[in-house]
Amino acid sequence: MRLTRNCWPLLLLACTGLVCAEDVTVTARVALVNGADGGRSHEAGNVVLWLTPASETPDSPAAEAMQRARLAQHNKSFEPHVVVVPVGSVVAFPNHDPFFHNVFSLFEGKRFDLGLYEAGTTRDVHFDKRGISYIFCNIHPEMSAVVVAVDTPYYGISDQRGQVVIRNIPPGRYVLHLWYEAALPESLKNLDRDVTISENTSTLGLLRLTEVSLPQGHKNLYGRDYDPPAPDNPAYEHP
Which one of 59, 80, 95, 172 has the minimum C-beta count within 10 Å? Predict the structure, then answer.
């Protein structure tokens, strides 16, 4: 199709509008309040925030942006404790300990069992749907982590001071969501809200979450209690 001379000013105006609508960086601050006594926690890390477009349009970004993240096993713990990825990403689980691990997740989110694998090796998991995946080791009950898969590229996670930064957000209308491991699902749902991001938006304000005591312990891969620790068991040592 040929563009007439009268069409060029309209095309130029449309392109100029797209150029002027620059992506925005917004911040937020999270405050955790103890549900038992109402006191404020000194640390507010690992709170996840994400923005999903209020309506799907042809210009909406593809949520399934392939990325790679790492959730390492070291000193019988996962590092870091919380990882956030867009749907479609791959998370590597390298074993940096001098003994075997067996990483699994069977509760909500992505379900998988990586089996036993030795020191110096790694296994990958493709997180192909949104959700919260609680990660454990079938050998060491003290190990736990969380992978949050979100269907948007606009997300952030709070540092220990409760500061969150979300970058490269196109102006528009979004729904703000929050997740925190020690918060009840219904209280998190009540914090969902519509927000409008524009060039004049710089902060999402102060977000208060009520934290509760987490249940202690979990079942193993087979839904049973863990066996008593056997640190000298050769089956779990690196050959």
Answer: 59
The set of residues, in sequence order, having a beta carbon less than 8 Å from that of 4 and lying 6+ positions away, is none
Do 86 and 166 lie in one domain? The reply is no
Does position 116 have pLDDT exceeding 70, yes or no? yes
Q: How many CA atoms lie within 13 A of 155 on its CB side?
A: 23
Residues in the chain: 239
Closest CA to 176 of 154, 201, 198, 193: 193
Please indicate, yes or no, if residue 84 is contained in any of the structural domains: yes
CA dist., res. 115 & res. 93, Å (int) = 12
Residues 6+ apart with CB under 8 A from 162: 29, 30, 31, 32, 44, 45, 47
Whether residues 53 and 70 share a domain: the answer is no
What tens digit of pLDDT does each residue of 166-208 get?
999 999 999 999 999 999 999 999 999 999 999 998 999 999 9
Q: Tell me if 49 is assigned to some domain.
A: yes
pTM metric for this prediction = 0.84
Same-domain status, 138 and 183 = no
Domain that residue 98 falls in: 62-151
